[in-house]
Write a structure and sequence with these properties.
- By secondary structure, the protein is of the alpha+beta class.
- Strands 1-8-9-10-15-12-13 form a 7-stranded antiparallel beta sheet.
- The chain is globular.
Length: 603
């Protein structure tokens, strides 16, 4: 497979106009967060004021983390206003670079401790993503120059030797894994410049194994599960392995790809819960796949982890074109991630302030059993001139953009229909001519999708339609021919003519999953939950679902505002239990009745 040498390949998606839940949330975040000029200025001031010195904080991550999501959002919405705001923000950031080339929230006497390298990593990340959407060649030259000076300072100061600091010693946190995640943007800078010193620096980082407490790469080779790694911080560990995957992209060393694939499978098996996140103990790998049914007094299922898992899966898909990674993105997006978006703009609870604080656009933690949202602001930091922000709030835009971006994409000689979204996507056929894909669907509440292909001249190519996991036996009709499809990609290779159609019918039914004496309910990609705000009584009560010939008996109701699906589950003794999509539940966490639960006491 041809290696992709530029991040722009990840941002060259279809020009799409969708309607429905995914589109609404992407545009909500664009409007409420990404177009907030005052917020960008707060993030930039961190670098001119060195705001992270006092508490060795991580405010310097905010700019680059949100810039990445903003650029991905721009790739989807093509908003001129957003582009202008991002351009001004980048120009203002470049003005903070000091005489040594540093763009850091720390001054020199305090550098290379705490979260300094982590923040410098995100400077490179944000600038590299903006570079790929930038239309001003002069500005692009300035960006590359600034990125090189910024990276060169680290290359000169970090490494092996008496006059250098080992990268695993540049942070007191998590065995230095946070610092070692600079690997990925350093490789991106190598892709952009071809400068061998950046590749050499990346190879140095890899030689450390990413952690001073034990080699993470060797842990994977040894078959260790993530919760048995020497450090178990989920977000940072996944970010390090994304860097290893980036190294594969420039070297084609198959062992690197294999290690990342094995790592991802271990995470999926041991720690990804039903809603598509990891970590039921704070933000740590902890065998959450097993622990997810337990009641917990601690925070759990961090939004940063959800988005990072989605991004890792997307990058694995780019390098393998394996449909299972799209299944996993959908699981995370439709459940844990969409559930984290604070559409009601409610206050959040700050552990640091021990009270409620003004609303952020994303909630940081996601409950699973008899608990509430809004339990804490992840990565909470205040700014010296007032206000606060958090890590999960900054990373979220990458998630709201990623899902629609990957819905319909052309990769190599094939058009991939990964997610069923109502609307239109315009991309290119292998010959270069424009192809329009029109999708009509009520998915995920319904399993039908009708797709029409529009193009000027008949052309032979492949269309790969993803049949979600668990949908074996799906019916696909194309060109008057009926097919039975299995989970994975249904490859339709033919001479496509203007007006050709594809119809997909997925066998979606309400399903029950038993684990540790509790029961959860799913409907295709959607995890369902009970919500105190939507029904009376005790959501932890025992009940017995009614089954006929082994099938759950239920009725679908009209979804209400903000819901993807609403179901009445028939139970014995004429009782009915209301189930609705997890993402819509618990969203009024400041109300008196605010608890929700995925895992129920159904028998």
């Amino acid at each position: 497979m041809k290696k992709r040498q530029n991040i722009s390949e990840y941002l060259r998606f279809s020009h799409a106009q969708y309607s429905g839940h995914a589109n609404d949330l992407a545009r909500y975040i664009e409007n409420k967060q990404l177009e907030d000029k005052a917020l960008w200025q707060k993030f930039i001031k961190v670098f001119s004021d060195r705001s992270d010195i006092a508490d060795e904080g991580w405010r310097s991550e905010y700019f680059g983390k949100m810039m990445r999501g903003a650029c991905m959002t721009y790739a989807y919405t093509q908003s001129r206003e957003l582009y202008e705001i991002l351009t001004q923000a980048v120009n203002d950031l470049l003005a903070t670079q000091d005489e040594y080339g540093r763009i850091s929230g720390y001054d020199i006497p305090h550098e290379f401790r705490g979260w300094d390298v982590w923040g410098r990593k995100y400077v490179l990340v944000g600038l590299s993503y903006y570079y790929e959407i930038c239309r001003d060649e002069n500005l692009k030259e300035r960006i590359i120059k600034a990125m090189c000076r910024h990276a060169d300072y680290m290359v000169d100061k970090i490494g092996r030797g008496a006059d250098k600091t080992d990268i695993t010693q540049t942070s007191e946190w998590w065995g230095g894994v946070n610092s070692c995640t600079v690997l990925e943007p350093v490789i991106q800078l190598y892709k952009l410049t071809g400068e061998e010193k950046y590749k050499a620096f990346a190879e140095y980082i890899l030689s450390t194994g990413g952690c001073r407490d034990g080699n993470l790469i060797e842990c994977v080779k040894a078959g260790k599960m993530p919760y048995d790694f020497p450090e178990t911080k989920a977000y940072e560990t996944m970010s390090f392995f994304e860097g290893l995957l980036a190294y594969y992209e420039i070297t084609a060393e198959e062992e690197c790809l294999d290690i990342v694939k094995r790592f991802a499978e271990a995470v999926y098996a041991s720690d990804i819960t039903l809603i598509g996140c990891a970590g039921c103990t704070h933000e740590l790998f902890d065998n959450a796949a097993e622990k997810q049914t337990e009641y917990s007094d601690t925070i759990m299922q961090e939004t940063c982890v959800t988005v990072t898992w989605m991004r890792l899966c997307a990058r694995l898909w780019e390098n393998t074109l394996d449909a299972k990674y799209m299944d996993r993105i959908e699981q995370s997006a439709r459940n844990a991630f969409y559930g984290s978006i604070n559409v009601n703009e409610l206050e959040g609870y700050s552990f640091e302030k021990k009270g409620l604080t003004p609303a952020l656009p994303f909630d940081s933690y996601s409950p699973l059993y008899n608990n509430v949202r809004g339990r804490g602001v992840g990565g909470f930091k205040e700014f010296p001139d007032g206000g606060h922000y958090g890590c999960c709030a900054c990373i979220g835009a990458a998630g709201t953009a990623l899902y629609p971006l990957y819905a319909v994409v052309k990769r190599e000689q094939t058009l991939y229909v990964n997610f069923y979204l109502q609307g239109v996507a315009v991309t290119a056929a292998p010959s270069g001519q424009s192809v329009t894909v029109r999708c009509a669907t009520a998915y995920p509440a319904d399993g039908e999708m009708a797709m029409a292909i529009e193009l000027q001249t008949a052309e032979r190519f492949s269309v790969a339609v993803r049949i979600p996991e668990g949908c074996d036996g799906a019916q696909v009709q194309c060109g008057g021919v009926d097919y039975k499809a299995k989970s994975g990609y249904m490859i339709l290779d033919k001479l496509w003519q203007n007006g050709d159609t594809v119809t997909v019918r997925l066998p979606l039914e309400l399903q029950a999953t038993r684990k540790n004496g509790k029961t959860a309910f799913t409907f295709g990609a959607l995890v369902l939950a009970r919500d105190e705000a939507k029904e009376e009584g005790d959501i932890t009560e025992e009940f017995v679902p009614e089954r006929i010939n082994g099938k759950l008996q239920y009725a679908t109701e009209q979804a209400r505002k903000g819901e993807q699906l609403r179901i009445l589950l028939m139970c014995e003794n004429h009782k009915k239990i209301l189930l609705s999509d997890y993402a819509s539940c618990g969203k009024n966490w400041t109300a008196a009745r605010n608890r929700m639960t995925v895992w129920t006491n159904a028998r």
